[in-house]
């Protein structure tokens, strides 16, 4: 029986601006990230044998994944162990069960969320202070630190500069993935080959936040996802997804998240999103697409 369980929620980029590029090749970004109710589930139980963590994969999107050292959840577990054992401490081994419900390489931070979830579970299991997870998270990937708290956050730099987002309105969301994986490095190569980084003035988020969804949408219409046109050039079906989302009853705003291919649509409430999802499921083109509808986490 699992001793601890937690959800690795999908991370959605409401906007994503590429603001620069460092000498080491990493791109600088500015993004407002929120978290949806959709997510993977990770369970932890004491290991019955062995001296390090091992991972079992289940769920609709586990096919094609390997439970080896390349898996971010297992890499997080072993990274946290190594960091602690370097101080002379020893810890009991853990068995991790990852249920994959989020599409792979889909622009919603699934692997990073899994890694952050593993860090949260193991800090509880090993009775470590939360700052231990914060130290290890940046070594695993640019999106892992923001996924630790799973709260609306402005991300800057390469993802390491995190600022709590101003208050957001209550809203519902639909996520749709058409079943294609998008390579983030290839999208950035397309960006570089087609004019590179767009020049913008500084972007300010209102300190008082957005009291209504109307106010948030007015703000979002002044922003972009700089990677969206390049993802569409690689996978034109993304444009088809966006067309379907824009035509749904009650939809307020739609855009691609991250480097794709998952797209999102915003609604006045989770109930509105769920009703719109029923219309989406009835459309012939969309019947094979993965979709989720529900709340944006507070």
TrEMBL record:
<keyword id="KW-0808">Transferase</keyword>
<feature type="domain" description="GHMP kinase N-terminal">
    <location>
        <begin position="71"/>
        <end position="148"/>
    </location>
</feature>
<dbReference type="Pfam" id="PF00288">
    <property type="entry name" value="GHMP_kinases_N"/>
</dbReference>
<dbReference type="InterPro" id="IPR006204">
    <property type="entry name" value="GHMP_kinase_N_dom"/>
</dbReference>
<keyword id="KW-0414">Isoprene biosynthesis</keyword>
<dbReference type="InterPro" id="IPR013750">
    <property type="entry name" value="GHMP_kinase_C_dom"/>
</dbReference>
<dbReference type="InterPro" id="IPR014721">
    <property type="entry name" value="Ribsml_uS5_D2-typ_fold_subgr"/>
</dbReference>
<comment type="pathway">
    <text>Isoprenoid biosynthesis; isopentenyl diphosphate biosynthesis via DXP pathway; isopentenyl diphosphate from 1-deoxy-D-xylulose 5-phosphate: step 3/6.</text>
</comment>
<dbReference type="InterPro" id="IPR004424">
    <property type="entry name" value="IspE"/>
</dbReference>
<dbReference type="InterPro" id="IPR036554">
    <property type="entry name" value="GHMP_kinase_C_sf"/>
</dbReference>
<comment type="similarity">
    <text>Belongs to the GHMP kinase family. IspE subfamily.</text>
</comment>
<comment type="function">
    <text>Catalyzes the phosphorylation of the position 2 hydroxy group of 4-diphosphocytidyl-2C-methyl-D-erythritol.</text>
</comment>
<dbReference type="GO" id="GO:0016301">
    <property type="term" value="F:kinase activity"/>
</dbReference>
<feature type="domain" description="GHMP kinase C-terminal">
    <location>
        <begin position="210"/>
        <end position="282"/>
    </location>
</feature>
<feature type="active site">
    <location>
        <position position="143"/>
    </location>
</feature>
<keyword id="KW-0067">ATP-binding</keyword>
<feature type="active site">
    <location>
        <position position="11"/>
    </location>
</feature>
<dbReference type="Pfam" id="PF08544">
    <property type="entry name" value="GHMP_kinases_C"/>
</dbReference>
<dbReference type="InterPro" id="IPR020568">
    <property type="entry name" value="Ribosomal_Su5_D2-typ_SF"/>
</dbReference>
<keyword id="KW-0418">Kinase</keyword>
<protein>
    <recommendedName>
        <fullName>4-diphosphocytidyl-2-C-methyl-D-erythritol kinase</fullName>
        <ecNumber>2.7.1.148</ecNumber>
    </recommendedName>
</protein>
<feature type="binding site">
    <location>
        <begin position="103"/>
        <end position="113"/>
    </location>
    <ligand>
        <name>ATP</name>
    </ligand>
</feature>
<keyword id="KW-0547">Nucleotide-binding</keyword>
């Amino acid at each position: 029986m699992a001793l601890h369980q937690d959800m690795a929620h999908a991370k959605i980029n409401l906007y994503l601006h590429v603001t620069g590029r460092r000498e080491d090749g990493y791109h600088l970004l500015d993004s407002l990230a929120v978290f949806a109710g959709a997510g993977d589930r990770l369970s932890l139980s004491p290991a019955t044998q062995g001296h390090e963590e091992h991972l079992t994969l289940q769920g609709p999107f586990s096919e094609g994944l390997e439970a080896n050292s390349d898996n971010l959840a297992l890499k997080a577990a072993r990274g946290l162990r190594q960091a602690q054992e370097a101080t002379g401490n020893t810890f009991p081994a853990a068995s991790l069960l990852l249920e994959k419900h989020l599409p792979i390489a889909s622009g919603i931070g699934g692997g990073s969320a899994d890694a952050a979830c593993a860090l949260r579970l193991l800090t509880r299991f090993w009775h470590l202070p939360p700052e231990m997870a914060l130290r290890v998270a940046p070594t695993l990937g640019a999106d892992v630190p923001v996924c630790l708290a799973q709260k609306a956050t402005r991300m800057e730099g390469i993802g390491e500069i995190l600022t709590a987002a101003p208050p957001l309105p209550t809203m519902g969301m639909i996520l749709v993935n058409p079943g294609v994986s998008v390579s983030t490095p290839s999208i950035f190569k397309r960006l570089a080959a087609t004019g590179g980084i767009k020049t913008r003035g500084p972007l300010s988020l209102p300190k008082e936040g957005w009291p209504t969804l109307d106010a948030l949408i007015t703000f979002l219409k002044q922003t972009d996802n700089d990677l969206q046109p390049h993802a569409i050039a690689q996978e034109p079906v993304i444009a088809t997804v966006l067309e379907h989302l824009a035509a749904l009853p009650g939809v307020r705003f739609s855009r691609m998240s991250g480097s794709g291919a998952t797209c999102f649509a915003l609604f006045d409430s989770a109930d509105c999103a769920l009703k719109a999802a029923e219309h989406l499921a009835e459309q012939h083109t969309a019947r094979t697409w993965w979709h989720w509808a529900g709340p944006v986490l507070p």
